[in-house]
Design goal:
Keywords: Carboxypeptidase, Hydrolase, Protease
Protein name: D-alanyl-D-alanine carboxypeptidase/D-alanyl-D-alanine-endopeptidase
Organism: Shewanella metallivivens
Strand content: 15-25%
Largest sheet: 5 strands, antiparallel
Radius of gyration: 28 Å
Oligomer: single chain
Pfam families: Peptidase_S13
EC number: 3.4.16.4
């Protein structure tokens, strides 16, 4: 524990840190020096004068938390990445430490904290998505209106952008037509939604668009707008086989193949370990490439080293067409004759006569449960679907990513959180255009903590070693951090962020925001522990203010 280390003399502390933290952080964080200069002849550590101060020799109980964290950061600060840090004592309700906390940086998924708070404020905890099967008629639809199995009116399937709607849910809605004795629909089958043609937010990486964590955000969402399958070998250097699960209405062609690892290994060239040449030649001999085309058509090419089958998870390209094809398929499976389904926006519907009657409806879970899933699993689809719903509720009109992001700024401003200098492009944090400071994220956390109606959001954060994205996260799933950190992760290429609360051994709880940008894959690969884990370990023994 760092508490015992800090009671030692500066020289013994420095020696211990040199053996412990330096060995941990040097290859991990790229720090240029921990305590001082090692004299190669005598192996003696010379402490820089800047670190020899009265605070260095104080016992932990006498050392101010701010000075303590500042001193420890100087020891642990990475050389190549950029940091933004804010720490706030939940007991005294005072800021105790900040570093570069006003700089705007990429938040990645800690942006979901903003989305969660804005959605709760605008939509309310009882909000839920509703998908309806309806018609316009002079009377509520019943079996008396079905003559010889034929229903004369139009049928509307009203989608709401429910990110949790599943294939079976839609099937149950349509089965209610069979329950009325309908075997033929003479009218139109109309899929209805709010007008929305923006399926991806500005700043989403092109390479991600075929992957399910970047599935399109649409009013039409079925099974997360993702299809699954498996790629299996039929022998090395032969075209592999693809088996898609559940026979979803997409088309995928394939010329991918598997190659023998021994053959692949022979293609490597010898080079000095760690050299740039070695890095250039250490890439896989081949890779798989998924090409996307219109009408939900895909082509898989390239190769994979080895013989083990691979899971496939492919994002739908055109959600409206996908929904139409599924409705068509499900009605056929129910034995109901029908016309080809069409898609209309709500503003395009002009019923000739009658009132709007709901035949059947499906409700999602309430917002509280949706946010729990979003924060625990870092669910991008829920986050961005909620952002659009927030914009729609705020403007009382259909809303795209840009308008919804401005609505989120306005909603958070009403809670005292000023994001005038920030840049918000989506609700999930996937966009590379998002820019937030550590202080702005901390303001969200303090608002959540200080207002009882939002406090449940802190309770739903992943717990280190127990739940969500922190359950198996390296160094967080074991002592001393296990069961002490409750935080939202935020990770993408070059980004490793964490924001939440930590229980310290001094009896205080702290809200914290750790933003690290510019972390190269090469340095991350060399790390023995992430910076966030090392810094939070030092916070476990932060002295009282």
């Amino acid at each position: 524990m760092y508490l015992t280390l800090l009671t030692a003399s500066p020289r013994s502390l420095c020696k211990h840190l040199t053996g412990l933290v330096y060995a941990l952080a040097r290859p991990v964080l790229g720090v240029s020096l921990i305590c001082g200069v090692i004299n190669q002849a005598s192996a003696e550590i010379v402490i820089p004068p800047s670190l020899v101060s009265s605070s260095t020799t104080q016992a932990p109980s006498e050392l101010a938390a701010t000075q303590y964290l500042d001193d420890m950061l100087q020891l642990l600060k990475p050389a190549y990445s950029q940091l933004g840090i804010s720490v706030w004592d939940m007991t005294t309700q005072q800021a105790v430490f900040s570093y570069n906390n006003q700089s705007l940086m990429q938040p990645a998924s800690i942006q979901k904290l903003l989305t969660a708070l804005a959605a709760t404020k605008q939509l309310g905890q009882g909000f839920y998505y509703q998908t309806q099967l309806s018609t316009y008629s002079e009377h509520p639809i019943d079996k008396q209106q079905v003559v010889n199995g034929v229903f004369q009116g139009d049928i509307y399937i009203e989608f709401s952008g429910d990110p949790t709607l599943e294939y079976q849910d839609l099937q149950q809605l349509l089965a209610s037509l069979s329950n009325l004795g309908i075997t033929k629909l003479s009218g139109e089958i109309i899929l209805v939604s709010e007008q929305d043609n923006q399926l991806q937010a500005p700043g989403w990486v092109w390479d991600d668009l075929g992957i399910c964590y970047a599935a399109p955000i649409s009013p039409f969402i079925i099974d997360k707008n993702c299809v699954y399958g498996r790629l299996s070998t039929t022998g090395y250097d032969k075209t592999a086989t693809i088996k898609m699960i559940s026979n979803r209405p997409i088309e995928i062609t394939n010329e991918a193949y598997f190659i023998n690892p021994v053959v692949a290994q022979s293609q490597y060239k010898l080079a000095p370990t760690g050299s740039v040449y070695a890095q250039a030649n250490s890439q896989p001999a081949c890779q798989l490439t998924l090409s996307r085309f219109d009408n939900n058509r895909y082509h898989l090419s390239g190769c994979h080293v080895g013989a083990k089958s691979l899971p496939l998870a492919i994002a739908i390209t055109e959600p409206a067409l996908y929904a139409k094809n599924i409705v068509d398929k499900q009605l056929t499976a129910l034995g109901i004759q029908h016309k080809a389904p069409m898609v209309l926006s709500r503003s395009q519907i002009t019923p000739t006569a009658g009132q709007h009657y709901v035949i059947a409806s499906h409700h999602s879970e309430t917002l509280t449960d949706l946010l729990s899933t979003m924060l625990l699993k870092s669910d991008n689809l829920i986050a961005d679907s909620l952002l659009k719903k927030v914009g729609e509720a705020y403007y009382q009109a259909p809303s795209d990513f840009a308008r919804s992001s401005q609505a989120m700024k306005a909603i958070l401003y009403s809670l005292g959180i000023d994001l005038a200098d920030a840049n918000l492009a989506d609700g999930s944090g996937l966009s590379r255009y998002n820019l937030l400071s550590a202080q702005q994220v901390l303001n969200v956390l303090t608002t959540v903590y200080q207002n009882p109606e939002y406090h449940f959001l802190l309770d739903t954060l992943p717990e280190s070693g127990v739940s969500g994205t922190l359950r198996y996260k390296r160094y967080f799933n074991k002592s001393p951090l296990k069961n002490h950190v409750f935080a939202k992760t935020g990770s993408m290429l070059g980004v490793a962020n964490l924001a939440g609360k930590i229980k310290a051994s001094n009896g205080h709880d702290y809200l914290f925001v750790l933003i690290e940008n510019g972390l190269s894959p090469q340095i991350k690969k060399q790390q023995k522990a992430p910076f966030s884990a090392v810094f939070l370990q030092t916070m476990m023994d932060v002295p009282r203010n």
